[in-house]
Design goal:
- The protein has helices at 77-82, 116-123, 145-152, 173-179, 195-207, and strands spanning 10-21, 24-30, 40-44, 52-55, 64-70, 89-92, 106-111, 130-136, 156-160, 169-170, 188-193, 215-219.
- The chain has two domains: 10-92, Elongation Factor Tu (Ef-tu), domain 3; 106-219, Nucleotide-binding domain of ferredoxin-NADP reductase (FNR) module (Rossmann fold, 3-Layer(aba) Sandwich), CATH 3.40.50.
- The two termini are 27 Å apart.
- The longest helix is centred in the C-terminal third of the chain and has 13 residues, at 195-207.
- Helix content is 19%, strand content 32%.
- The chain has a six-stranded antiparallel β-sheet. It has a six-stranded parallel β-sheet with strand order 10-9-8-7-11-12.
- It is α/β, with parallel strands linked by helices.
- It binds flavin-adenine dinucleotide.
Length: 221
Amino acid sequence: MVATHSHILSPLTLSFTEEVSSGIYLLGFKRTFEFAAGQVIGIALTEDGARRLYSICSGEKDEDVWILYNVIDEGYLTPRLADLEAGDTIWITEPRGEFTSDDDPAVWIASGTGIAPFYSMLKSGRAANKILIHGNRYLEQFHFYDYFTELLGENYTRCCSAEENEGVFHGRVTSFLEEYPLPDPGLKYYLCGSAEMVVDTRDILIEKGVPFDRIISEIYF
Ligand SMILES: Cc1cc2nc3c(=O)[nH]c(=O)nc-3n(C[C@H](O)[C@H](O)[C@H](O)COP(=O)(O)OP(=O)(O)OC[C@H]3O[C@@H](n4cnc5c(N)ncnc54)[C@H](O)[C@@H]3O)c2cc1C
């Protein structure tokens, strides 16, 4: 990749873009750089266009880089991104960010597209001793469900607030955490997603005895 500084953007060609569930899109392009699972890139439509941050949603050694995003109807970038097709150009910054995982046991908690960094971590070989709790409004939004189940088995919990299904907790991630005992308050807790989920979850974890410095957050604002 041409960029040597996080503020410099490089153009690249989309290999695919797909609406994977209503209003949620996955786009991909050929990987030309190294990154650590959990990092983000900036995306813009032109070199000097408005830029937003996105977690990389693919493995460190995968051939393609994937980005999972939901369209904010009144937003600037995402409705325009959703109109792009394979072969179109976007501009990206180099990867950055500290929301990265190691091999220590940890609990990963995500809402919505906040699942992206955890998928990247799993695809990069960090599944051992990990517990994943994912919240969505609708069942169709649990992307990568098969993969998570295969890798994590019972250590993968889905929390669905608007629909019920067997084996799925009915309610938000925060209700799940309030209702059930924590796996182990001594573990590291990684939170990723909306500000509301991250802030509310952090409060619950602290109340349940998790030290503040064991909680690592990435807020999608
Ligand atoms: C570190 C980081 C990583 C991120 N990674 C991802 C990712 O992997 N996938 C992803 O989909 N998004 C991610 N985001 C959010 C992303 O950067 C944009 O904010 C989002 O895509 C909206 O951009 P936009 O230009 O369409 O809307 P904007 O023009 O930026 O926003 C329009 C309006 O929508 C509100 N808004 C912004 N985001 C949301 C939201 N999620 N839900 C409801 N309202 C919202 C804003 O407050 C504003 O009022 C990340 C953000 C950060 C800070």
